[in-house]
Amino acid sequence: MIVALYILGALLLVGLVLKLTHRPDAPKPEDDTAPPADDAADSECCGMHITCEKDSLLAGVSDDIEYFEDEDLDRYKGRGADDYTDDEIEQFRDVLLTLRPDEIAAWGRSIQLRGITLPAPVRDELLMIVAEARKNASSQ
């Protein structure tokens, strides 16, 4: 009976240590078999990673600037992502939230081609919406 209690205590102690040291959000070590980051294959975006999504949104397919009834946003050309007031951020957000789902990526490219830096919160929302749309499209 005492041996069973020692085993049970040891199992509980190991479980507690594992629970306290487990970090599911910790970065995983790089795979040694993966090609180096500057490999030519990395220059193409698969659309499955957030950094690729940023690049693919900003690297427009064409150089044609398309407006989405947002000409008033041109006055923010050259501003930094953190240089907007709350009201100005809301102007960008209003445009983003009134776009049709098929217009969102094109709007992001248009903003970049016009030399406008999106406010950081709106940029994050844009990337989240595009990632969700790609996820839904790939699961269908």
Task: Summarize the entry for a quick read.
The chain has helices spanning 2-21, 50-58, 86-98, 104-113, 120-139. The chain has 140 residues and is mainly α.
SSE diagram, text form:
Blueprint: H1 2-21, H2 50-58, H3 86-98, H4 104-113, H5 120-139
Any descriptors?
140 residues, 0% strand
How would you characterize this protein structure?
It contains 5 helices and no strands. With 140 residues, the chain is an all-alpha fold. It has a domain at 64-140. The longest helix has 20 residues, at 2-21.
Structural class: mainly alpha
What characterizes the major β-sheet? none
Number of helices: 5
Instruction: Compute the CA-based radius of gyration.
Output: 23 Å
Proportion of residues in helical segments: 40-55%
- Give the mean pLDDT: 77
State the end-to-end CA separation.
57 Å
- What percent strand? under 5%
What series of H and E elements makes up the topology?
HHHHH
Low-confidence stretches: 31-43, 47-51
Write down how many β-strands occur, each being a DSSP E stretch of 2 or more residues.
0
Shape, per Cα inertia axes: elongated
